[in-house]
Task: inverse folding
């Protein structure tokens, strides 16, 4: 059997630390300190996993926020349940309670901590390739079969999961996480605290061709992608490199799964885009926009700050007034769309009435000399 030879920096196995299946074990007292709660029950009870309140098992922690789930607190086997301070038990409860101002917020913080513990891997696998010219920060995790190209710059506390490709001359900021199968082409810039889920592709060619002429070939894409800090992308998102200049994703943008951002687009700060949305080339979105799923935007548009779009909205013209909401295809303001949809739903009856009136008109006797 042939042996695989890896060129570049070959890290010894002793440098590789992988914390698989790291468990979370805390008692109620420790958790109450983390979320600033008050204990009602046994402060020493231990938990090592999280659960839904209706599926709670011994050794798990859950929460109660929605009043519809209140009956489950009297049945659950969870060892600890986080509740609002206002909760009053009408029957005996088995789990230890931790009372907080907002059970939902406290539990979200706990889940964030749980994720940090679960994903707290470090070290560099001997089965990855890192070019000699690459700069590596401190406290890295680089998993098996990942590739880090020439003149790349990797910041501190970055996590590169298995089978990630990072192309030449690319920069990755501190605390960024690249989940398995992420592909980042050459010459791109990724900020700090970003999260890219499995299958994300950054810097693939923009869809630009010159059909119907003598050349009839694709237009070379020689720009790059710039992604600022605190950006998260769901699985299988694609952000195309610019033809010239940069495709830009501003600070705090959040993309759901399967979002496509085309060449030379710019997505404004803190904009949220839901799944299966496609934004065509050179379109600029403002700050704080909320884009629902399956939205389609034409190229070369300008979308104002604080714009909202409902699911399956089709945008063919620029929307330049900030703070408005849109529905429909072509997109129209929500109030206008709702009035229009009422008429659309009644369209068969309206057509029937018009046809009846036309038929009656044709059957009326023709008047002669005003009689």
Result:
């Amino acid at each position: 059997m042939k042996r695989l030879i890896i060129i570049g920096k070959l890290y010894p196995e002793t440098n590789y630390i992988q914390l698989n299946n790291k468990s979370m074990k805390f008692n109620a007292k420790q958790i109450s300190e983390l979320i600033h709660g008050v204990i009602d029950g046994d402060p020493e009870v231990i938990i090592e996993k999280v659960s839904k309140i209706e599926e709670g098992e011994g050794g798990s922690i859950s929460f109660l926020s929605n009043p519809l789930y209140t009956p489950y607190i009297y049945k659950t086997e969870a060892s600890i349940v986080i509740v609002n301070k206002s909760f009053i038990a009408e029957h005996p409860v088995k789990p230890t309670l931790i009372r907080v101002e907002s059970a939902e917020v406290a539990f979200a913080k706990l889940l964030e901590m749980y994720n940090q513990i679960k994903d707290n891997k470090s070290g560099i696998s001997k089965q990855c390739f890192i070019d000699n010219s690459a700069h590596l920060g401190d406290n890295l995790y680089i998993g098996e079969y990942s590739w880090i190209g020439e003149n790349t710059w990797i910041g501190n506390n970055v996590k590169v999961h298995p089978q990630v490709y990072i192309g030449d001359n690319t920069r990755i900021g501190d605390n960024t996480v690249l989940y398995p199968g992420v592909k980042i082409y050459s010459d791109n810039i990724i900020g700090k605290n970003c999260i890219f889920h499995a299958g994300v592709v950054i810097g693939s060619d923009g869809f630009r061709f010159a059909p119907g002429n003598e050349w009839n070939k694709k237009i070379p894409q020689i720009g790059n992608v710039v992604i600022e800090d605190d950006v998260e992308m769901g699985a299988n998102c694609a952000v195309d490199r610019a033809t010239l200049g940069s495709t830009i994703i501003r600070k705090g943008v959040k993309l759901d799964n399967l979002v496509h951002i085309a060449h030379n687009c710019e997505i404004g700060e803190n904009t949220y885009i839901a799944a299966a949305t496609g934004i065509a080339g050179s379109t600029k979105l403002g700050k704080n926009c909320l884009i629902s799923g399956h939205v389609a935007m034409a190229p070369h548009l300008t979308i104002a700050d604080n714009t909202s779009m409902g699911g399956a909205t089709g945008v063919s013209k620029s929307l330049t007034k900030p703070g408005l909401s849109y529905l429909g295809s072509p997109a129209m303001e929500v109030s206008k769309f709702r009035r229009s949809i009422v008429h659309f739903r009644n369209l068969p009856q309206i057509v029937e009435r018009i046809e009846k009136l036309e038929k009656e008109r044709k059957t009326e006797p023709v008047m002669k000399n005003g009689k």
Notes: DSSP finds four helices and 39 strands in the chain. The first strand starts at residue 16 and ends at 17.
